[in-house]
Amino acid sequence: MIEQLSVQHLLGIKDLTKEDIELIFRTADNFKDVINRPIKKVPSLRDITIANIFFENSTRTKLSFELAEKRLSADVVNFSASGSSVSKGETLVDTVNNILAMKVDMVVMRHPKPGAAMFLARHIKANVINAGDGTHEHPTQALLDAFSIREKLGRVEGQKVVIVGDILHSRVALSNILCLQKLGAEVMVCGPVTLIPKYMSSLGVKVEHDLKKALAWCDVANMLRIQLERQDIRYFPSLREYSMLYGLNKRLLDGIGKQLVIMHPGPINRGVEITSDIADSEHSIILNQVENGVAIRIAVLFLLAHMRGFEQSNVNKGFCKDLHLHFSRATFEKNRYMHFSLDKTEKYVVIKLHEQKLNTLIAAELKSELLLLNTQGFNNIILDLEESLYCDSSGLSAILVGNRLCRNSSGLFVITGLSDTVMKLVQISQLDQVLNLALTANDAIDFINETEEERKIEDKIEKNIKE
Question: Rounded to two decimals, what is the model's pTM?
Fold first, then answer.
């Protein structure tokens, strides 16, 4: 069964379930393998056009979304409010509808007014992703922050996270609070009385005004910058005084006497909320957040595109008639390297390679397809190498990727049709001890069916024992 999000737009964390967040994380885990390999692109959103519409200045978020879109092979249109017809009085809906008239499928928008993304989603048919709406929410930032905590500490549940700084004007703070709570973390906010909203306790978070006490309590400290551009009055006497009371420095951190994880959504005001020696220290995962931002946004784009059913118009109909997957038409019209088929019960996918050499180029294509199959929920895969007479280290790496993906999803990865040459290479590498090998495709199918039956019997026995 293909896993799907429960929403068609990403407007805020409040709209997501815990299962949605965990699905995004699992998808991001897979795509991190993609962005860290030599060939970083997959054809998942080929023929899909995405408009990045930013009514506020942005560096990291805009670049991260654009890079994520290009990694998925989407066509990208960038729009900036400065110098556009917005300055001439054009409304938000008119601006976006003009862009959609150019056949744009998805919109990523940042806007200074809270609720702008929700307003837009009600008036257009395209997917809308909120890249920040005023002081309201910034959902992808919260997702990448929680994902980074999970990556660093192994889990989010049970962790104590303090968010320090300008809570009143921060969209990052609200989204982080909602996301962390859904995942089972304890949350505290810390800052001057004037920068913490009165309603914070109603959200189920702790409030602390002493930074040293907050740091002694937490496992993770997320340091926010002062949002001077959103402040119309003075909320504290000076930046110097703020830094003295709420700035994180080495002396303060050393005095806590325990290891903390330090985060910052950026941009950093060095010397104000955090000093350079802490921002660049081994405690900091700030650069990990930047890297994870691309993976999270790739996952969000991929999953929302699938929700909208782009596969109905942008995929090879002959292939998807039997195999209900989200791939682009161009992938399979041009993919001369391999053929895909799915059994009637949808228990397994058979990938048959047409090339005699499983080299670097073919291995990169194979890795992409294995990743997409796994992300779509197909975890039993048979790789038929009957026509492949040669395999190099890249080919073995692709095979191991398939084996790991299926195993991690409680599925099976079975290789069949190995030539004598390839079999010798597998044995020399001692991979025959970890891979499932079969002589023919029929043997592989029997192996999968037998394993499925064994699992059913084991589950039945375990259920009887519990009863």
Answer: 0.71
- Nearest to residue 387, comparing CAs of 432, 364, 421? 421
**Straight-line distance from the first to the last Cα atom of the chain, in angstroms, rounded to the nearest whole number:** 28
The mean-pLDDT minimum among 38-52, 101-115, 139-153, 221-235 falls in: 221-235
Look at residues 392, 400, 386 and name the one whose alpha carbon lies nearest to residue 439. Answer: 386
pLDDT at 315: 35
Q: How far is CA 326 from the centre of its chain?
A: 17
Can you tell me which residue has the tokens 């040669």? Answer: 390
Read off the DSSP letter of residue 437.
Answer: E
What's the whole-number mean pLDDT along residues 136-156?
A: 97
Those residues whose C-beta lies under 8 Å from the C-beta of residue 159, and which sit 6 or more positions away, are 149, 153, 180, 185, 186, 219, 220
User: Over the stretch 58-71, which tens digit does the pLDDT of each residue have?
Assistant: 888 999 999 999 99
Return the bridge partners of 357, or none: 390
Q: By the 8 A CB rule, do 126 and 106 touch?
A: yes
**Residue environment code for 304-339, b if the CB has 16+ CB neighbours within 10 A, otherwise e:** bbbbbebbeebbbeebbeebebbbbbebbeebeebe
Q: How far is CA 258 from CA 81, 135, 217, 346, in A?
A: 46, 33, 10, 51
Packing angle of the helix pair 286-307, 60-71 (nearest 10 deg): 50
Q: Which residues make Cβ contacts (< 8 Å) with residue 169, sequence separation at least 6?
A: 135, 195, 227, 230, 231
Q: Which H or E element spans position 263?
A: strand 261-263
Cα dist from 405 to 25, 171, 359, 385, 396, whole Å? 15, 35, 20, 19, 14
Q: Tell me what the mean pLDDT of segment 95-123 comes to.
A: 87
Tell me the per-residue pLDDT of 371-393, one tens digit each, with 9 for 90 and over.
Answer: 777 776 777 888 888 877 778 88
The b/e string for 35-65 (b: 16+ C-beta within 10 A; e otherwise) is beeeeeebbbbbbbbbbbbbbbebeebbebb
132 pLDDT above the threshold of 70:
yes
Domains of the chain, CATH where assigned: 13-137+292-307 (3.40.50.1370), 140-286 (3.40.50.1370), 335-466 (3.30.750.24)
Query: Looking at 3-72, which runs of residues are DSSP E strands?
Result: 49-54
β-pair partners for 284: 262
